[in-house]
Structure formats: structure tokens, C-alpha cells
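Table 4 source record.
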Amino acid sequence: MSIVVSTLARQAYEALRQRILTGEMTPNSPVRQDVIADALGVSTIPLREALSRLEQDGLLASFPNRGYIVRPLSVDEAREVFTLRLKLEPSVVAEAALNATDADIRSVEDALKTLEAAQAGGQPGEHVTANRLFHMALVRPGAGVVTIQILERLHVLAERYVRVHLEPLGRNVRASEEHRNLMSAWAQRDAVRVNALTLEHIRGTMVDLENQLRN
């Protein structure tokens, strides 16, 4: 793939991903490739590359002779994604706290500031990406490549659900408090407390989502 096509594919991917995460492209809606190509000013090749990557991210689904649709949200998928996070993430984040350098701590602090700024008044959907980057910053110190890749994948799948979870009034406040408490324990390298806070944070989100998506 040429550099130009690769750049256009990346731009199309980011634009479409943003529309899906903000709900502008609604679940189960068809992806009109001709309309999108015109709107984004890209040709078929980079658009198809972008759509393929979005399907790999779990945001789109493709069907023979039907093209792409935006994947629906479901209780079952939310439960699966967050259950897997519960099994992996708390112990990994706790281990990362023990391995964290001062530079790692500053990186997580910066990620939390970016997240809180996005929650306070960023672009639509920006807080969802910032949330993923904050949580992954907590994971990275000392974690292996495979572990990071698996958790990154789970967080990408979780992003649309995080947006839904934060919609009810007051959820941002609760999430921010939980993030600050987690950051504080992580910076103090209190692995036991980090493990417990991470479990509580992920489990609470999962329970809320199960209730929301059933209604």
C-alpha cells in the first residue's frame, strides 16, 4: 500500500471510528460506502482498508452481498468483554504499580489529566479514547507484549460500552473519583489496594451496563 493510500485509510478510519463512538453512526445502521467516500473525499481502496480495520476492532460487521453494518451493542458482549477484563486487568495493573518508575507515574498522571479535561469539555467521544489511554497507561509498566495486546483489544471493544455507561447524570463524577483513587494507590505502589480498586471499578461498570442494556 502506498504512503498516500495508507494515510487516507488512517484518516478515514479515525473519522468513522469517531462517528461510531459518538453514536452518530448508530448500531445496526448500514454503512453506505458511496456516501461515506464522498463525505470524506476518499476513494474505494483506502475506505475499504478503513472499514476492514474497523471490523477487526469489533465496531463493524460485514455480510456477503450486504456490505457493512455498525455492530449492535449487547448485554452478552458487554458481559464477556468486562468479565475478561476482570480476570486479567486487576492483577496486571497491580503488578505494573510495583514496577512503575517515576516517569511511568508522571505518564499516568498526565493521562488522567487528559481524561478529566476531555470529560469536562472535550470533543464528542474524546473522553472514551482518553479513558482507554489512561487504563492502558496503568497496565504497561512491566507487562509483556502479549498481555498488553490482549488488554488493548479488550479496551477497544469496551469503548462504545464506556460511552453508554457514562451517559447517565453523575456517572462522570463517580468515574473520576474512582480513577483518582486508583491513580493515588498506583502511584504509592500499593498493589493490594490497586487490585481491589480495579476489580471494583470494572465490576461496577459491568453491573451498570447490564442494567442499562436490558432496559
